[in-house]
Each structure stands twice: as structure tokens, then as C-alpha cells.
């Protein structure tokens, strides 16, 4: 056998070994997907001015007429409050 054939055979055996080990791990219930899952702790709210999605904990809150609005920035909050004032 030539050295090239031995190298190719070694690479194929290594790939086969990794596939078998990976399949065995998935049978035990340990998968890459479950290891990367992060629990959800926050809800995304849509900014009514620019329509960006903002995590509720990081958003700027504005209450008007008993309803809470969430904004991505002070600028959007100010724009919204001015528009609300003009509508009244």
C-alpha cells in the first residue's frame, strides 16, 4: 500500500470513529442542542415608534392612559409622548 492510501484510510477510520462516538452520546440524552439552550428570562416588546424589538428589562417604559409602552431609546419615548400630546 502506498502512503497516500494509508493516510486516506486513517482519515476515513477517524471520521467513522467520531460518527460512532457522537451517535452513542446522543443515545444517552446528551446532545449539542440541549447544552446550548438558554432559559428565557425576558420578553421582547415592540417599540411603537421605530418597531424594534426590545427586551422588557432593558426598555424605557412610558405609561399613558393606563397602558404601558416600551421603547428602545429616550428619543423614541419623547417622540411618542409628543405625538400622544398632539392627539389629545
Compile the SSE list and pairings.
Layout: H1 3-27, H2 32-36, E1 44-46, E2 53-55, E3 60-64, E4 67-71, H3 74-87
Antiparallel strand pairs: 1-2, 3-4
* Main sheet properties: 2 strands, antiparallel
Q: Strands of the largest sheet, in order across it?
A: 1-2
Give the termini separation: 88 Å
Under the CATH scheme, which class of the largest domain? Mainly Beta
Number of DSSP strand runs:
4
User: Average pLDDT value?
Assistant: 83
CATH topology title of the largest domain = Ribosomal Protein L24e, Chain: T
Summarize the structure in words:
The chain is α+β, with helices and mostly antiparallel strands and 88 residues long. It has 2 domains: 3-36; 44-87, Ribosomal Protein L24e, Chain: T, CATH 2.30.170. 50% of the residues lie in helices and 18% in strands. It contains 3 helices and 4 strands, in the order H-H-E-E-E-E-H. It has helices spanning 3-27, 32-36, 74-87, and strands at residues 44-46, 53-55, 60-64, 67-71. The strands form 2 sheets. A two-stranded antiparallel ribbon has the order 1-2. Strands 3-4 form a two-stranded antiparallel sheet. The chain is rod-shaped and about 85 Å long. The mean pLDDT is 83.
Amino acid at each position: 500500500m502506498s502512503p497516500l492510501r494509508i493516510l486516506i484510510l486513517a482519515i476515513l477510520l477517524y471520521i467513522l470513529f467520531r460518527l460512532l462516538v457522537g451517535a452513542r452520546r446522543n443515545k444517552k440524552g446528551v446532545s449539542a442542542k440541549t447544552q446550548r439552550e438558554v432559559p428565557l428570562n425576558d420578553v421582547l416588546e415592540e417599540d411603537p415608534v421605530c418597531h424594534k424589538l426590545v427586551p422588557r428589562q432593558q426598555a424605557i417604559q412610558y405609561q399613558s392612559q393606563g397602558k404601558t409602552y416600551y421603547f428602545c431609546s429616550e428619543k423614541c419615548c419623547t417622540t411618542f409622548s409628543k405625538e400622544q400630546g398632539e392627539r389629545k
